[in-house]
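In this section we walk through a basic example: taking a raw amino acid sequence and producing a predicted 3D structure, encoded as discrete structure tokens. The instruction is simple. Fold the sequence below.
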Amino acid sequence: MKIKFVAKVLSFLLLCAMLISLVACKSDDSTEESSTLSENPAESSEEQKSAQEWIATLDDTEEYNDRTFVIATTNPDLFSGEGDSLIDKAVIKRNRLVEAKYSVNVQVKLVEDAEALAQGLKNAEESGVPYADLVCTNADVLATLVSSGYLKNLYSIPHLNLNAGYVGPKLVEAQTVNNSLYMLSSGMTMNTSDLWAVYYDKQLLAEAGFDPVQMVEDGTWTWDAMLQIIKTVCADTLKKDSPDVSRDTFGIASYYSYSDLTDVVWASGGNRFFGDSYNKEPVISVNDSTVTTVAATVSKLENNGVLFKNTGTKALETFTEGRVAFFVYKMDMVYKLDKANREWGLLPLPKMTKEQENYCSFLDGSAYAIAVPSSIEDSDFTGAMLNCLFAASADEIDEALQSAFINYYFWNNDSTKMLALIKKTAFCDPAYFYNQVSEVADVCTKALGTAVNESTDFSDELSTKEKSAFEQFSKSFFK
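The resulting token sequence is shown next.
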């Protein structure tokens, strides 16, 4: 692994300096604050405890005589710790703390894919034989298991203290719908790597006379500001009727799909389909004018003539060649940029307007999350172990991930500062966790995509039948 930048002391000082008291992102169509996923470390000195200190505060209820706590996951990196990296060492340490606290064995069951995990849970329900004590895969996949009745509401799990500082009450609130929390993305699942961000080619922007980091700090980093930079950087390309994808410089690219742009722009404004859904019945209340603004922004990004329309490896290669100004994707793209020969930097997603109070770093439905199967044999055991797992994770798992980013992948101190800001302004709209459930998607994410693509009002896309289906789903599961 090539070390781009090693300055541990300075990097961590910058991280601490950036952990300022930021209030939650605000929705354009709500006066109430939206929840962020990160705790404010100034709220309580207790939240500064290490994993060992948190473990010491747990009740010594009993030892479990070498019982096995089984974690089934499609991502072994989150729980196995089989390598020698900073993250692996943190995971191993976490598992050993749990094992020592209650005399148990932590066993990780690697599942090939989400489909196999879902089938395993189904078989467990039908046979009455427990599948695992804990499962971990993408949140939107877990949502489909909720609708099948395969997952337990985490609020119903005994001994699991969701209000504890080591869990993070704010991230719990942000992902709760009414009184239901079936899955949780957190530091335990390294959700920092799932946050959407913007990568930029430092040379292209510097030559054009722009300092985007300063714009972020000034609060002027908006989608319109990005477009103005693109027009300058890509002036020659804009003059062409048909840009050459093998030679010309483009303004924006993404790795996966450009349908994500609508979702990213929507979330960057702090918008939530359910509004504040914590301990409240979810009600779809979306302002059509907000959707119109989102649609206009997406249209500018897609139709300005400098959108690099290829995705995947081709888009990545074009960015690393220095022919794309901005690359929009999640934080885990850092790993794929390791072999880049040009200096790149990191930015949060732009704001919708300069007046927007804070940046919002989107956590979408592909984020990894944990859940508890309905087929567990002993809920007391599962609850005690899961609570201990949270305490043993504390912030240390996510801190190991950040250290790996900073010391092995980042080119400059600016990226360290931006990482702190991105993590601090993490933003969750629970509707995206359920975007694979048609009853939810039809009145949320799917309706938004249709309204944006067809330039219609969001409210016009909702049928009485779809609203009724959502209400029925809500009463059944968000209760």
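Looking at the output, two observations stand out. The first strand starts at residue 67 and ends at 73. Confidence is low (pLDDT under 50) at residues 1-46. In the next section we compare this with other chains.
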